[in-house]
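1st attempt posting a full record on here, be nice pls
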Amino acid sequence: MPSPSSPLLPDERLTADRFDTLAHTQGLTSGPTRVLFVCSHNAGRSQMAAALLAHRAGDAVTVSSADTHPADEVATHISQALTEAGVDPADACPVVPGRRYLDWPVADPDGAPIAVVRDIRDAIDAHISELLTQLAP
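the predicted structure (as tokens):
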């Protein structure tokens, strides 16, 4: 078992995240609102949405992204579109249970030219703006 100052192994981190999330969703702990974005590969839309919300909300919201069929990494053109907007395209894929689900119909950026990816990024950011108004205390 790692010491308190050493990083958790992936399985330990996943288990800790799941227990922490379960306690949070059952009202046993307090803290920031948790938001999970899910798409089919976690290489495009969910990554853009998670990065945009994390960038705009800061510590007020805990943001994660996940997938149904994981890709190996965030697509290069997705990273480019986020970087152009001043957003860090960091990757995170934990499994997080929740209470409220929103479905945002957003085009798939897979294979799209960068101009289309920028439009998709902006559409997701508009959804993020609306979400932030709903999450505000």
